Amino acid sequence: MDIEMIRAADKRLNGYVRRTPLLSSPFLDDIAGRRVLVKAECLQHTGSFKFRGGWSALSALPPEKRKAGVIAYSSGNHAQGVAIAADAHDAPCVIVMPSDAPAVKIQNTRDLGAEVVLYDRDNEDRDEIGARLAAERGLTLIKPFDEPMVIAGQGTCGLEIAKQADAARVTQADVLVCCGGGGLTSGIALALAGDAPGLKVRPCEPERFDDVARSLKSGRIESNNRASGSLCDAIITMRPGDLTFPIMQQHCASGIVVTEEECLRAMAHAYERLRIVIEPGGAAALAAALFHPAESEGDAVIAVATGGNVDKAVFIKALEMSQ
Amino acid sequence: MDIEMIRAADKRLNGYVRRTPLLSSPFLDDIAGRRVLVKAECLQHTGSFKFRGGWSALSALPPEKRKAGVIAYSSGNHAQGVAIAADAHDAPCVIVMPSDAPAVKIQNTRDLGAEVVLYDRDNEDRDEIGARLAAERGLTLIKPFDEPMVIAGQGTCGLEIAKQADAARVTQADVLVCCGGGGLTSGIALALAGDAPGLKVRPCEPERFDDVARSLKSGRIESNNRASGSLCDAIITMRPGDLTFPIMQQHCASGIVVTEEECLRAMAHAYERLRIVIEPGGAAALAAALFHPAESEGDAVIAVATGGNVDKAVFIKALEMSQ
C-alpha cells in the first residue's frame, strides 16, 4: 500500500464521490477548548465513507470479474457502499449481513438492488459464509477493510482532509477517526503521511471494543472478547486487519476510547450545532474531540463523522438524553 | 438590484461563507418521480442561509457605521446570521426577537454575543421597535429581507446553485425555495436569471401563510391574516417586501403551498436519506418536491433546505410521525 494507490482511487472516484464538507461551530469549539473541524462523511452517498471503498474496489475490477458479480459481508454501511457501486457498474451483488444489524440498513441494502443473506454474528463466521458463497457463484469477495483497493478508496477521504485543513489554516492537529477494522483509519493515515505530515491520525473506539487501541499499545494484533453488543455496531470488529494494522502502527498515534453515552451526547451536539445526523459508531471521533480534550494537544482537532445510518429510536434516545 | 451586486457580495463572502453541498438520494428520487437535488443551506454557518445576507450587509457598511453597531429584528435565523457577522466584524449588535421564537434560537443569538430584546409579535410592531432603538443608539438597521445588501448576500446561494446544477448536468429545472419575505427567493432568482436561465425559481410556503403565492397570482402585494401560529416560524412574514416582490414578479414562476404535516414528513426523509437536520420552515421546498410532484415539470428538481435550527421536541415529533 502506498499513497499512489490512493491517488489512483481518487481519480476513479472523481465525479462520483461526494466531496464532503469540513464543518465547524463556535459552540463545539467552546466545549472542546480548541477548534473542532468535523469531516462530514455521513453526507457521503449511502450515508457513510464506505461508498469510497466500495466504488474504488468495483471500479478497479477487470470487466469480466465485474460482470460475474461481487459479494460483501458487512454490518451495513460497507454493504450499502458496495451495493450502490455494484449497481452503478452493472455488477450483480450479494451482501452477507448480521441478523442483528439495524433494520434500516438491511432494508436500504435490499432497496439498492443487492441480494441480502443474513447470518447470526455470535454463532456463525461471516468470512466462512462469504468465502463459500463466493466459490459457489463465482463472485469476487470485497472485504470490508483488509483489502488494498478498499483501503485506497477510504484513503481518498484523507486526501480531502489534507486540502481542507490547509484551506482552514490547520497544519498541526490530531485527526480523530472512528475505527473498526482500520480500513478508513489506515487509508487516511497513509494519505496524510504524504500530503499533510503535521496531521496525526488517532483511532477512536467504543469501550469494550478497543482492539485497535490495545493493539497499538502492545505492538501486536489484539482481539475483542465479543463480536456484538454495542450501539456503535458500525465500527465493531473482532480485531484490526493484517493489512491495516501495520499501516496504523507506522502512521498512527495512540487510540482514544470513548463510552457509548459519550457517543450519544456527541450525536446530540452534532444535531444541534452542525445539523448533521450521525450514528453512534460514527460519533466516536467527535465524542473523543468533545469529551476527551486532555488526550489531544494543539489548537485544533479534526474529527471524522464516519456515518449517519441510525434507527430513529436510537437517534431520539440521543436527543432526549441531552435535553 | 442586479446580478453584479450579487457577484460583489460573493467576493466579500469568499473565504468566510460555507459553500454548501448539493445532496441527493435515489430514495428521494423514487418518491418524487424525478431527480431531487437538495441545496443544504442548513449546513451554512449558524444553520441557515441568513449568514450570507448578514455577512454581506456587515461587510458592505462603512467602517464608522460598523463601529457604531447594528440592529436587526428576526424570528431567529436572521438574528444569528447578523450576530455572528457582527461579532466577526467587531460591531456591537442588538437583536429584536419575537418572544415566541424557539428557545434554542434566542439562546444561540445571545451566545453569539448579541444583546437580545424580546417583543410580542401579535401586539407589537417590530419595525417600529427596531426603528426606535436604532435612532436612540445610533445603530444601523439591517432588515431581514427588504434590503439590497441582504438580497445580494442571499443571492450568492443562487450563484452556487447555478454552478452545482451545471456540474450535475441539470440545465432545466424548477428551483424550489422556502419563502418568507422573499430575500433568498429574489436573490436566487436574480442570480439564476443571469447564470442559469433554464432554472426557474418557485417560492414555497406553508398553508395559511401563502402571501407570496397569492401576490404572484394577483399581481399585487397580498398579506397574511395572521403573523404567527405555524411550525414553519422561520419563514412566516406578513407580506412580501417592496424590493423583493417586483424581483420575484419578474423572475419567479408560481408559488407552491404545502401543509405543516408535509414539512414534518420531509424533515424525516431528509434525516433518513440525506442525514441532514432541517427545520419545518426549511423543509417547505423539499416537501413541495416530494409531495407535490405534479406541480413541477422536467427530469429534475432542486430544493433549497434553508435552515436547520429546530427544537428537539419538534424534530422528534417529525421522526415519530413517520415511523
UniProtKB/TrEMBL annotation, chains A, B:
UniProt protein name: Threonine dehydratase
Membrane spanning stretches: none
InterPro entries: Ser/Thr_deHydtase_PyrdxlP-BS, TrpB-like_PALP, TrpB-like_PALP_sf
UniProt GO molecular function: ATP binding; L-serine ammonia-lyase activity; magnesium ion binding; pyridoxal phosphate binding; serine racemase activity; threonine racemase activity
Annotated keywords: Lyase, Magnesium, Pyridoxal phosphate
Cofactor(s) this protein cannot do without: Mn(2+); Mg(2+); pyridoxal 5'-phosphate; Ca(2+)
Similarity comment: family membership: Belongs to the serine/threonine dehydratase family.
Gene Ontology BP term (one): D-serine biosynthetic process
Gene3D superfamilies associated with the record: 3.40.50.1100
Domain Tryptophan synthase beta chain-like PALP: from-to ranges: 16-307
The organism's taxonomic lineage, starting at the top: Bacteria, Pseudomonadati, Pseudomonadota, Alphaproteobacteria, Rhodobacterales
Domain of life of the organism encoding this protein: Bacteria
Originating organism: Cognatiyoonia koreensis
